Amino acid sequence: MTRTVYTFLLYLILPFTPLKLWWRGRKQPEYLQHWHERYGFYAKNNLHLTEISKTNISTSKIIKPVIWLHCVSVGETRAAAPLVKALFQQYPQHQILLTHTTTTGRATSEQLFGNTISSVYLPYDVPFAVKRFLNHFKPVIGILMETELWFNLIAGCKRENIPILLVNARLSEKSAIGYAKLGRLVNEGLQNLSAIAVQTLEDAARLQKLGANHLTVTGNLKFDVQPPQEAFVEGEHLRALIGVNRKVLLAASTRDGEEAIILDAVASIADLITIIVPRHPQRFNDVEALLQQRGLNYQKRSNLNTNHSNTKIDEHTQYILGDSMGELFTYYAACDVALIGGSLLPFGGQNLIEAAVMGKPVLIGPHTYNFTDVTKAAVLAGAALQLQKTDELREKIEYLFKSKLVREQMGEAGLRFTEASMGATAKVMDLISIHLTAPENLTTP
């Protein structure tokens, strides 16, 4: 496929995108907000303006040059946190702009960074929208998180002489096969990147086979993410509400169909309370309906106030529905064992690093093609148990809750595993510094 054909197909799809936004907005009204940004139309105040004092000019407004990171959704945004912090420290004269595709990614950005950065939606990858985006923000560098290949966007940056990097890049065997079918389109896109920072040698080999060059192995940025201190405090509060003597299983980032498997597995396990946190907030109501359909005793996290000691979880409660955003570290702090969702059915798995960095024993299902290397390393380190088939779930849960010593050993192994894997941020920052030079002067609009 050529980029001309790719663009033609996108233009055919473009008239239907408002319908898609409306459809998604039925469950997530946030998709109906800022919709114009997806077509390259941005408000003048999208970037924060810094007021400074100059000789004879008391209120001159100066626009900082823009460092732009694209973080498609929640996982990429959280992974970018240590990188954003490092960019603030090393380039204080710049403005940080984060772009997203999902509403949850944007909400996570605002939760993590507040008004210290600007957050907008990345436009659809059609030339006119890409041109509007680049002309509006005029980034001095672009950084794409993980494997986000938008071919007109990359070509637009190349045309405008904007260095664009792909960082924390990973490519599964399954994804590599899919990209290979696009042939020339992918080859051109990869070669137009200024640099690629990959997580592993295996990722580098797969990308190189597709035509990538300028490859550097830097490791995984997610190992550098530090849990917020308040997560430990809130986790203790939540555990106090549950009861310190009860067994707590966390099913984190579950996907459609997995909750039923989990409910079957934990049924009748004595004195166990299971916290279920769906990956996508639009599924909160669906999971609640499943709990109601089965006649199970549950409470919703949104109805629990951890600031009041007299708010207790009923002793008959078997499940907690984690219907809140941005509290995954809190849930990890409160649990005894963490089951990582997206892995019980063929969704490719979710990030297990956050559980390990909290010192929790990890259970993960057989489907981990998006996190193959991390999963293998965690199992080898003794930080995780991986099921060979989903039918083993109940057996593994009971095994871990039989022995506090095993849980403690796995938790300690997780801490050692994550600590030994840190350092990707510094390597990525070295790569960025090669392509980003501090401007001599800020520009007055």
Describe the structure.
- The structure is a single chain.
- The protein starts with a helix and ends in a 10-residue tail after the last helix.
- The chain has two domains: 3-219 and 423-435, Rossmann fold; 229-420, Glycogen Phosphorylase B (Rossmann fold), CATH 3.40.50.2000.
- Helix content is 42%, strand content 17%.
- Mean pLDDT is 91; it is low at 48-62 and 438-445.
- The longest helix is centred in the N-terminal third of the chain and has 17 residues, at 74-90.
- The chain contains 18 helices and 16 strands.
- The protein is globular and about 65 Å long.
- β15 (362-364), α15 and β16 (384-386) form a beta-alpha-beta unit.
- The strands form three sheets. It has a seven-stranded parallel beta sheet, with helices on both faces.
- It is an alpha/beta fold and 445 residues long.
